[in-house]
Amino acid sequence: MSGELPYDRILREYLTGELRVLNAHLPGKQKSLADLWDEEYPHVLCNDGSVHLFKRKELRYLDSLIDSGERKALLLPILIEVNAGRGEMAVLCPGEVEKKVIQKVLDMPLDVREGRVTIYRPQLALVRKRLKTTTQYIFSPQL
Amino acid sequence: MPQLIKVTRPTKIELIKLRRRLSLASRIQKLIKDRVSILVMEFLQIAGQTVEVKRGLLDDFSAMYKALSLAAGYHGYIALEKEFTASEGGLEIAAGLRNIGGVKIPAFELKKTRQALRGYSLIDTSSWLDRTAELSEKCLEAIVELAELQRSMAQLGMEINRTKRIVNALEYLIIPSLQATIKYLNMKFEERDREEKSRLKRVKVLLERK
Q: Model confidence over A65-74: pLDDT tens digits?
């Protein structure tokens, strides 16, 4: 912006950078449970170049929740969308397997709307407790 | 009282710029507030787990030392030392990172803990030593888990502090000063309008007199 003071420019860049950092950890590409099962160190590469490691214990737990034929359909990490200023979160469910997993973890029936399952904070805590490495947050800047 | 932001010239363009900046700052504040609340939730969860694991580890340690002293009493220290030397082996830990809302925290996983053969002679030793070995393996797993949890807590704590400072700066400094400057500029424009109106009235009166 022309005529902008250095302080303001720094502030603007810092705030925009903060927004960029929020989603830098997202995986470049999700991997199926079947693919991760065969890896010695199950992991995905993130957009910021870091490696996100999955715990075998959690993969075994996920495997116990689904049928063996569904291993290829379950994409990991499962993404949890956080909407700014709202108390609810949404688990992104491109397929039925993700819904099945979340339903079994929470032990309650859930509805998928526009490829998302809405959950609330207490439920989020439960999901994160069981699936620490196999879920990741995605921050949505839309208001 | 919020400080006014220095504007080069009080113009409408400046006002539009400030309004844009205010909307950006408000959006970011909401996002960062959500991030802080998620980080706090994760921190509390990890703190709870740390307490649980630490308590379990202390119980396991005490059981392990009991079993060890029984084994030492049964076999004698020299024989036990000999068996321990034979069973020495390396540890394999898979270390990586996991991410919680932009915070990189370590993830450790102990590999090959439970072994069918531990290296010591099964003929010369008793089940007391097996029990000791089993408990010490359990302790090892808990130590690795505790290391991960404690490091995660430290990392999350630092990030919560940093993010809270940003939220506070936005909430108590940046957004109020932007709002105050916008208000100041609006008042300035209204004042200009009033001046213009009174000037026109004066000119009209002068023209009428002529």
A: 888 888 888 8
Chosen from B99, B105, B145, B155 to mutate, greatest number of chain A CBs within 10 A: B99
B28, B100, B109 ranked by CB distance to A15: nearest: B28
- Residue of B177, B134, B189, B191 lying closest to B22 (CA atoms): B177
Residue A32 tokens read as 């199926």
Q: Could you tell me where the DSSP H helices lie in B76-126?
A: 77-86
CB distance from B30 to chain A under 8 Å?
Answer: yes
Residue of B nearest to A141 (CA): B31
**Residue B119 maps to a domain:** yes
Q: What is the pLDDT of residues B66-77, one digit of tens each?
A: 988 888 888 788
Cβ(A45)–Cβ(A53) under 8 Å? no
Chain B CB within 8 Å of residue A3 CB: yes
DSSP state of B5: P
User: Of B27, B34, B104, which is closest to A50 when you measure between CB atoms?
Assistant: B104
- Nearest CB neighbour to A136, from listed B9, B14, B99: B99
Which ipTM score applies to this complex? 0.80
DSSP output for B124-136: TS-HHHHHHHHHH
Give the Cα-Cα-Cα angle A79, B105, A16 (nearest 5 degrees).
65
Instruction: Say how far apart CA B207 and CA B17 lie, in whole Å.
Output: 40
Looking at the complex, does the CB of residue A12 fall below 8 Å from at least one CB of chain B? yes
Asked whether the beta carbons of B32 and B101 are under 8 A apart, the reply is no
Q: Per the structure, how many domains does chain B have?
A: 1
Q: How far apart are CA B50 and CA B161, in angstroms?
A: 20
Cis peptide before A109 (omega within 30 of 0): no
The amino acid sitting at B38 is: I
C-alpha dist (Å) from residue A64 to A33, A53, A55, A117: 12, 20, 14, 21
Phi/psi-derived region of residue B102, left when phi > 0, alpha when psi is between -120 and 50, beta in every other case: left
